Amino acid sequence: MIFNRVPFFTSLHKVLLVIVCLMLALAAIAPSDPTAITLTPGLSVSTDKAVNEPLSPPENKPALQDETKAQWLVKPGDNLSYIFQQNGIPASVLHNVMQADTQYLDLETLQPGVRLGLDLTDDGTLAQLTLYRDPARKITYTRQIDGTYQHQEQQAKTYWVSEVYRGDIKGSFYLSARGVGLEQSQIALISQLLSYQLNFRRDLRAGDHFTAVIGREMTGQVETGQTRIESVSLQRRQRTHYVFQFKGHYYDEKGESITPAFLRWPTSKRYRISSAFNKNRLHPITKRRAPHHGVDLATPTGTPILSTGDGVVARIGNHPFAGKYIDIDHGGSYKTRYLHLSRIQVKRGSQVKRGQRIALSGNTGRSTGPHLHFELHIDGRPVNPVTAKIPTAAAIKPQDMAEFSALREQKMAVMEQAASMSELQTAENSRDF
Ligand SMILES: [Zn+2]
C-alpha cells in the first residue's frame, strides 16, 4: 500500500494559512467581546476544523463503486462463521478463507458497519469474498482451482488533509484532549511523545494550552478513517514543547529525535531463526507457496516477548492459524506483530515501552512447534525485520535539515494562527448563547 502523501508545502497549506490570516484580519476589525470567552464556561476549549476540503481534490474515486455482488453489512455480534452459515457457505470454505488470511489478519477486524461482498456461483460456491475495509481499500479472496483462496489488496489513491485541535488543560491531559474531540489512540500517542520532554504529572497545570495538527486520509471527497499526528505543541508557562512528524519519525523543534530507538529483536536473548522473511515461501504444512511476512524465532513456550518499541497495543486476538496475537502501533510509520503466543500480558489500548514484556511465546494456532512469528510493518507493508532500517534516536540528517525547517515553520504557523482563530470563534459562538 503506497500512501500518497501530500507534500508538506502544498498549495493546500498555503491556502489554509491565507484563510487563517483572513479570519484574523476580519476578526480584528469586527466588534467582539473578549470577556465573553471567560464568562461562558466550557467554551474556552474548542475544536477547529481549519481545513476540510483540499483546494483541488485529486481526480480519483473511491475504489469501491460498481458492485454487483451480494452485500453483507456487518452488524454487532456478526462473525465470519455466522455470515457464511447465513449464506449457505460450508465450514470447509471458511477454513480455506481463514487460511488465506493468516499472513494478513484482515478478516480479524470485522467491525460493525463494514461491508462484505459475497460472489456466489449458481451452485452456491463462493467464487470471491470481498472485504471493503475502508473507502479506499478493498481486499478480495478469490477461489483457485484447487479450492484454496488467494488474498489480494486494492487501494485507491489517497491524500491527506490537516485539522487543528486546540484546548486548555483542565484536569488531566487525557480528559482535556477528549474534550476537544481527539481520539483515545491519538491521545495515547501524543502523551507518549510529550512524555519524552516533560513529566505530565509534575509539569502540567490548569491553563496550559495544547494544539495538535491531525492528518486525515482522504480518497476522492471521502475520509478513509486513517489519521496521523502531524504536529503537537504544548504551551506551559515558561516554555513550549513541540513534536513534528517528518518522514515517519517524530522530532522536537531542533530536529532531535524524540522517539527512542527500536530493539531489533523482541526477546532479551537471541534465538535461532527457524524460518526467514520470504515473499514467496513454500509452506511447511500446506506445501503451497505463500508469503511469510515475518521471521520465526525458535523460542521455547513461555519465553518473555518484548515490545521492540514504545507504542500502543492496537489489537489482540486469537486466530485459528495465527494463534494468539498482538499488534502494536508505534506511531509514525511503524507497527509490529507477534503471533502464536501462549499468554498475552497487555490489554488493547494500553501504552507499552520499548523492551516491556507483552506476552509469553507459545505454539497456538497452526504451528509446527513452539516459536514466535514476529513482523515489522513500515508504512503498512511488512518488511524483513532482520534487515529493515529501524528507528534510531538520531537527529535530522544535515541534508534533510532545510526540508525539516520548512515543515517546522509551516506547522508552527498553522498551530499559532489556529490557536488565535479558535479564541475568536469561541467569542463568536458565545453570542449564540
Ligand atoms: Zn512465521
From TrEMBL:
Q: Which GO terms describe its molecular function?
A: metal ion binding; metalloendopeptidase activity; peptidoglycan binding
Q: Is Electron transport among the key words of this record?
A: no
User: Domain Opacity-associated protein A LysM-like, which positions?
Assistant: 71-152
The record's listing under SUPFAM superfamilies reads: Duplicated hybrid motif
* Domain of life per record: Bacteria
According to the record, the signal peptide region is 1-27
Instruction: Report the cofactors.
Output: Zn(2+)
Query: Which regions form coiled coils?
Result: none
This protein's record includes keyword Zinc: yes
Q: Name one GO cellular component term.
A: cell envelope
Q: Do you know which Pfam families this protein is assigned to?
A: Csd3_N2, LysM_OapA, Peptidase_M23
A GO term (biological process) for this protein? proteolysis
Supply the alphabetized keyword list: Hydrolase, Metal-binding, Metalloprotease, Protease, Signal, Zinc
Q: Which part of the chain is the Csd3-like second N-terminal domain? A: 159-278
Q: Which part of the chain is the M23ase beta-sheet core domain?
A: 291-385
List where in the cell it is found: Cell envelope
Name it: LysM domain-containing protein
